[in-house]
Amino acid sequence: MKPKMSKGDKSHSLTQEKLEMFRFLEGWAEENMLTFLKRVEDSWQPQDFLPDASSKSFTDEVQDIKARAEGIPDECYVCLVGNMITEEALPTYQSLLNSFDGTRDETGVSMKSWARWTRSWTAEENRHGDLLNKYLYLTGRLNMKQIEKTIHYLISSGMDMKAESSPYLGFIYTSFQERATFISHGNTARLAKVHGDVTLAKICGTIAADEKRHEMAYTKVVEKLFNVDPNTTMVSLADMMRKRITMPAALLYDGQDHNLFNHYGAVAQRIGVYTTKDYGDILDFFLERWRVGEITGLSPEGREAQEYVCGLAERIRKLEERAHTRSMNKRSQMMPFSWIFNREVEV
Ligand SMILES: [Fe+2]
Ligand SMILES: [Fe+2]
């Protein structure tokens, strides 16, 4: 029996002709996408930011981390941990990239440029969760077992990217997501600095810079898709926006709080790590970057999609104003977070 799909689900929406096109674009990806990757020998590694466990000064350095950690409020830790857990679910994201028709790594060692990108992107991203996990562990402020359980649950649950195995939808999604993480890590960097932990600020800032570089690569791919196939790309952008870009950690659960993602999201919204305004701003940024409003020669379906996405940023902004007014009138509520030993944080 076939597994049941939810209403509106499609998979493998790419035609043979489009598959050919992605094959044809391999040379382009080699010259325009792979160039955004860094050589291993030139790359930072988590150990560059961590105390060396083999050195005599290790215990003193850990004490310094713990001392600095005292100055960071719990609400920041909720966001840092949520971001770290999102990074740690990397196996899910690599699996999804390898679900895209025409660009997946067919063998695990494929030398095709799309496949090489996916493996190297994963390797670069792998440092993010690794570094945040090790550093945050050393602060001594966190219930690591609860955090580890959350990661375990999240990877087991997966995520619904709604990309239908299509690289059009998929690369639009990854463009948004890289920019969202760039914003979010950039904001935790700023907060860490304000609260006196310069090392943590540097860590979050370094990760944010990676996200920016990845955003540039994915954005360039979508720009190319708009050039070679404006109709499908426009319709895919509208489709993705109608479905709304879901966050990778939407299925967050720690074994206690069934609404954990919303509670983490509310804290991120309140302290400005990632807000509904950012979502609208990201859309605006890409509409401008891909010159979506200026694309001509579209089919009626393409034009309808163009009209929809171009009017969407304004609609998001209105919704966001309403949500903001509602949240201003809402009585604040305290929520315990298991990640910080059930200490309570305002949501
Ligand atoms: Fe990342
Ligand atoms: Fe990323």
Automatic annotation (TrEMBL):
It comes from the Eukaryota. GO terms for biological process: fatty acid biosynthetic process. Fe cation 2 binds at E125, E178, E211, H214. Keywords: Chloroplast, Fatty acid biosynthesis, Fatty acid metabolism, Iron, Lipid biosynthesis, Lipid metabolism, Metal-binding, Oxidoreductase, Plastid, Transit peptide. Fe cation 1 binds at E87, E125, H128, E211. Binds 2 iron ions per subunit. GO terms for cellular component: chloroplast stroma. The keyword Chloroplast applies. Transmembrane segments: none annotated. Its cofactor is Fe cation; Fe(2+). Coiled coil: none annotated. It is found in: Plastid, Chloroplast. The keyword Iron applies. One of its GO terms (molecular function) is stearoyl-[ACP] desaturase activity. Pathway: Lipid metabolism; fatty acid metabolism. Belongs to the fatty acid desaturase type 2 family. Homodimer. This is Acyl-[acyl-carrier-protein] desaturase. It comes from Dioscorea zingiberensis.
